[in-house]
Each structure stands twice: as C-alpha cells, then as structure tokens.
Amino acid sequence: MTTPQEPMLDVAHGDPARSAFLRAALRRLRESSRDERFQALVDDILAGRSSLRAAATSDVFNRSIAAWVDEGARRYQELPEEEREELAARGEQEFAVLREELSEAPSTDRAPDDDDDGYGGSIMRKGW
User: pLDDT tens, 18-34?
Assistant: First the structure.
C-alpha cells in the first residue's frame, strides 16, 4: 500500500494496487540493473522526487529496460493463446486480491517489496 513515505505513482491514476504492483516491479528492475544512473532514477521515482511518466521518456530508463522489454515481448509472443489468457486471468485475480488486501490494511502498512511482495506465484517472480 502506498503511504506518505511511498507516494502514489503518477501512472497508477490513484489505484493503490496498481501503484504497489508497479513499485514492486521497479524495485525488481533496480535490483537487476548494474547501471548506477538507472538505479538512481528508480530511487527518485520510488521516493516521489520524479514521476514514472517523466522517467519513461529518459534515455537512461529506456536503455536500461530495452533488453527486458524485448525479452518479455519475445516470450509473450511464444506463448500459446490459451496460456496468454490464463496469465491475464491470473493477473486480474492477483490485482483483485491485492486491492482487497490494501483496502483492509491500515494506512501505515508499507508497499510489498521484492522479499515479501505477496506475488510469489505471479508473473512478477524472477525468471518469468
């Protein structure tokens, strides 16, 4: 859940579940990167000093995620349509659970991070 310490991401359009999910994804990307400029950019996004929308237009951000995006797109294209539909349904279920958890959690809870993200079986896991 987003808290005063964890600002809502601009691209989440006020959706705490979407913001929490994106924050977890950004943390995972940051941990996977060796580019100090990308890591600093993600730190700024997570701290609310920069918006994800603005960062997404930067060369640092785009160069850093290009290989991951290409690999993800390639793997997605290789999936049979039935598996794509199953993944989409699972993603919708995960968001529903996350939204429910966030609506029940006190506002002092922090957003899930990579170690306790609650997305153990999700497409956010390493190696997907």
Answer: 999 999 999 999 999 99
